[in-house]
Amino acid sequence: MIRFHDVTMRYPEGHEALRSVNLHVPPGQMLFITGHSGAGKSTMLRLITLIERCTRGQVVVGGHNLSRIRARHIPLYRRHLGVVFQDHRLLLERTVFDNVALPLIAAGYRHGEVRRRVRAALDLVGLLGKERLQPVMLSGGEQQRIGIARAVVHRPSLLLADEPTGNLDPNLSRYTMELFERFNQVGGAVVIATHDLDLAWSMSHRIITLSEGSIVDDTSAGA
Questions:
Q1: What is the dihedral of CA 125, 106, 163, 37, to 10 degrees?
Q2: How many CA atoms within 13 Å lie on the side-chain side of 29?
């Protein structure tokens, strides 16, 4: 599913966010990326989503060498990804339904299929019945669940989450991780960048630890 081959990411000012990283994430695996602030966690996700391109090495996702994907083809590539952000990035003036439906509308799904899939995604995250509310009418935890529903509504093969529990209390954090597990259990690969090492360890999935842009620990090295 994901391969990093000797990947280095150096920014113009000279900072190396990643240093010769090698990583293989098989299809269907759930992986936590941990490490201190600035260790390179978010950079790895930005490379996978093609927000940025690596300075050296290769990133391969789903058999696609990302260095060969031209700018105009990036939106098509991203249709196979689901992304959950810490700050939700919801359209606050639109309804819950409209927010979750965005990936489907962008992909050209018909209205009936959009409605069916949005309701299924909201049911997954426990928000069925709140389709017509605006996000500002819901709690922070519910807004995060809207983001998760939007990320999975088009049934991506890969779900990415960047510090998805950073603003949540412990109970909501655990519930959020269990939602990611449900997606993983039906075959989707999941990669979560998090500073919450205790929560990651409690989930009994693969964990890699970054320090100064390098992988210093991997609970399933050689996977």
A1: 180
A2: 19
Work out how many domains the chain is built from and give that number: 2
Identify the residue whose tokens are 């983001």. 147
- Tens-digit pLDDT profile for residues 55-68: 999 999 999 999 99
| Ordered strands of the 206-211 beta sheet | 81-85, 158-162, 189-193, 30-35, 206-211, 214-218
- CATH number for the domain harbouring residue 38: 3.40.50.300
Q: Tell me the backbone φ, ψ of residue 39, rounded to 5 degrees.
A: -75, -20
- What values do phi and psi take at 82, rounded to 5? -120, 135
Asked if 59 and 45 sit in the same domain, the reply is yes
Would you state the structure tokens that stand for residue 181, as one six-digit string? 């597990």
The helix (run of H) or strand (run of E) holding residue 17 is strand 16-25
> Could you tell me if residue 206 is inside a domain?
yes
pTM for this predicted structure = 0.91
How much is the mean pLDDT over the chain?
93
In one-letter notation, the amino acid at residue 80 is: H
Closest CA to 74 of 61, 88, 58, 56: 61
